[in-house]
Amino acid sequence: MKFVIQRDYLVRSVQDVMKAISSRTTIPILTGIKIVATEQGVTLTGSDSDISIESFIPVEEEDKVIVEILEPGSIVLPARFFGEIVKKLPKETVEIEVQNQFLTIIRSGKAEFNLNGLDAEEYPRLPQIEEENVFKIPTDLLKTIIRQTVFAVSTSETRPILTGVNWKVENNELICIATDSHRLALRKAKIETESEVFYNVVIPGKSLNELSKILDDTTELVDIVITENQILFKTKHLLFFSRLLEGNYPETSRLIPEDSKTDVIVNAKEFFQAIDRASLLAREGRNNVVKLSTLQDGVIEISSNSPEIGKVIEEIQSESVTGEELKISFSAKYMMEALKALEGTEIKISFTGAMRPFLIRPINDESMLQLILPVRTY
Amino acid sequence: MKFVIQRDYLVRSVQDVMKAISSRTTIPILTGIKIVATEQGVTLTGSDSDISIESFIPVEEEDKVIVEILEPGSIVLPARFFGEIVKKLPKETVEIEVQNQFLTIIRSGKAEFNLNGLDAEEYPRLPQIEEENVFKIPTDLLKTIIRQTVFAVSTSETRPILTGVNWKVENNELICIATDSHRLALRKAKIETESEVFYNVVIPGKSLNELSKILDDTTELVDIVITENQILFKTKHLLFFSRLLEGNYPETSRLIPEDSKTDVIVNAKEFFQAIDRASLLAREGRNNVVKLSTLQDGVIEISSNSPEIGKVIEEIQSESVTGEELKISFSAKYMMEALKALEGTEIKISFTGAMRPFLIRPINDESMLQLILPVRTY
User: Fold this and answer.
1) How far is A336 from chain B (nearest CA, A)?
2) Which of B265, B331, B332 is nearest to B294 (CA)?
3) Where is each DNA polymerase III beta sliding clamp N-terminal domain found (chains A, B) (predicted)?
């Protein structure tokens, strides 16, 4: 294998596939990046066997030569060293050449690295996916959907299925749900598809976080293919594979209350900042709990008390409070994460009493909601 | 105690005095910030008993009212909570009022915090320093001097005196020296003084690092006062006290070779980048060693070898190589830190053989030098 490549393209591709590589893998060859050079271009692959990322650098793009293939071939190079080396090379082009015994020479300007590589034939095969039923989402919307749900997955392995996000596809709509059993995030979005498709799968939260990091903020469509145990996201030069979680995701629709007893509409930013301040003293304690009470004339009071340190109390003028009076306690962390996930300047919080889960939604937007279980203190 | 203060001034002062406060102190009251309000203004103090920082906020500055003192007094408030609270207060002004039992009310807009304070009478007294002999250095020069020397102090407590920087004042000149016995940094600077002063003290590296963080990049003069066991740095509204290290600093002048056998002049940036690349593979090993060899026609070769991973070799065209041929090995880390500390685009490296310490200096600047002991590999 021998080729000359524009350094910037190589750096970008290496950074992308590195997202899949873990230094703690038990399969030594997976600490490496697989490099395959063909007449069409260079393909880099990284994998931790849960996530696999393939990045393709074409020989030419928009009439600009990016790679000059001198001899097709393949090699696996140690990812961390290769990544650091390409970032620090002195010139704009890099020559990579495999010699005997997988010894690989990396040249740029007057700098020459010899790296001991491994046989690419030993690298595990990526899943083969039949692209029968593809649906499409714009890249920026996909990133938003991930951001609005993935934070709510469970970090505990007690119920492994809750460490993933439930994706349901039906009636040309994608419904994404994440819950750790103390709070729940839900986001719906229209999808583009040629034939009607039905899916109900659970994607590991970690996979979605890594995917989000390597996607650009463009409106270009991402192709999504789902099989029995894999999901594939395809962009122009990138393939992102993730395994799916096995098992049935709990039915969450009955958790979401349909009516409410107290509705509060507040400015999202003011409310967020008041919660943030109230939680300053509460963070020390185990549960970071703040209290919300409705007062007269649409005023709500946010407070918190940490006996040893002190207490905090703040009044906020809401847009409106309708329904019954209410005193309720909840996790400031969950509330702040829910508010960060939602869009819109005004939000509506719908309570069904101090002991029941409550809903947070942007006003006039049915596509997203956040649900939080209160904490019993009164 | 009761006063109303501009939040931004309070935030800045709290951040400054927090630099002295350690959460791991064995003296509970030192986890707090002492606040003293007088008719002249508000003084904040933080201390870990090695370093003490006092920040003064005047009642008025440039005809702008900053503090309105309603009742003079004092209190000690828990530093971390107080710091987080003032940063997140909703309005531009803050009211702070001490009530019975040191309970302190912090009000801003409709947010009200109650913090349990401590009696300011219990707070340790700062050292009393007679300001007899003061010398002065511009703030930006002081920061540069610290940056160019403090990184070379020892991090090991085997020889505690080496964890400090040796400051010698004589003939209206300040000489700063730091060494961890593997490398040495030296910087000289003219000082301003009214009467001739002589000092030879050792300042803890940690103190200088913290001092550097709270100094602005201005040309205003810093007053420096040295006593038997304390040093005081004074700026307009800030007092920074540090204890001095006890013991005699080793005599280092005989370490610095006076003649050389091989002199190399190189572009500092090119040389730094080549060392950085050569060390990429060496970082894995214990000692991060790179080799330098002089070749023909002013070319020098930088190389490194890590048998399991691979090797790297790079040629650099120097400005000039004079004297004997040389092969020498040294720590890439020490060389990169020395190069970062020096100013100037071209540097001169003066070797006295492969086993002797060598000097790195900017060309045409006698005020600073870096010395590194080589590593025995040939």
Assistant:
1) 15
2) B265
3) 1-127
